[in-house]
Amino acid sequence: MLKVALLIIDIQEDFLPPNGTLVVPNGREVIEQITKLCDLSKYPWLAVAVTQDWHPPNHTSFASQHGVEPFTDVEFEHPLEEKNACTGKVKTKVQTVWPDHCVQGTFGASIEKSIMETYYKLPEELPKIVVQKGCLHDREYYLCFSDVWKLHKTDLEDFLLKNDINHVVCVGLAYDFCVLNSAIDSQMSGFSTAVLKNCCRSVYQDKIAETEKLYGDAGVALFESIDEYLTSLKK
Ligand SMILES: [Zn+2]
C-alpha cells in the first residue's frame, strides 16, 4: 500500500519574483496550487515536509565567496578531502555558484507566508516538519536529503521512515535543481517518487527536455497535475 508524503521544496522569498536574489522565473505562480494541495479532505498525504534552504553568510555555493560572477562553474574539493583511491587526488565536483541567497535569518530565507500559514493549519495529528538544509558552509545541498557529497544528512529521511512513508510527491522550486535532485535522491533512497509539474518552475526553461530525461532515467514519475496523479493511483 502506498503511504504518501507531500514534499514542498524551497518556496522561499529569495527564489520568488520580484525581489528574490535568485529568482526562479514565475516561481510565485505555484503557491496557490501548492496551498490547495494541503487539503487533506481531498488528497492522500500521511505526512507533509516543507524544505528551507538555510545558508550561513559565507556559504560556499555563493559566487561572492569565490570572487567570480554568479552562474559560473567552480570546481569544489571534497569537504573532508577524501581522495580517489586510484589517482590519490582529492575528489572534486564542478558546480554552479549562485548569487547570495537564503541567508539564515533574512527575509529572503523565509518560507513564503501563505505556504507557512497553510502548513500551520494542517491537522495537529498529521506528521509534519520543516527541514532546513544548506546549514554547513563548506558544501552545496541541491538535495533535501543530504549535502551533495552525502556526508551530512538532513532530518528528512528519518522523518519519512519514522512515519512509514514509502512514496513521496514533490512540488516546488526549482524543477531543474532542488526538486530534480531531491526527487532522484528520494527515488534512490527507496521511496517511489512522483513530481507534479504544474506545481514546479525551472531556472532554465529552455532545458526542460534535458531536465526531464534526468527524471526519467532515475525512474521518477512526472505528472502534469494532481488530477493526473490521482487518476494514476486508481489504475
Ligand atoms: Zn542554496
UniProtKB/TrEMBL annotation:
Keywords from UniProt, A to Z, are: Hydrolase, Metal-binding, Pyridine nucleotide biosynthesis
Can you say what this protein is called? Answer: nicotinamidase
Question: Pfam families of this UniProt entry?
Answer: Isochorismatase (PF00857)
* EC number(s) given by UniProt: 3.5.1.19
Q: In which pathway does it act?
A: Cofactor biosynthesis; nicotinate biosynthesis; nicotinate from nicotinamide: step 1/1
What biological process terms from GO does the record include? pyridine nucleotide biosynthetic process
The family note in this entry says:
Belongs to the isochorismatase family.
**Domain Isochorismatase-like, residue spans:** 152-206
Enzyme class, broadest EC rank: hydrolase
Give the Gene Ontology MF terms in alphabetical order. Answer: metal ion binding; nicotinamidase activity
Domain of life of the source: Eukaryota
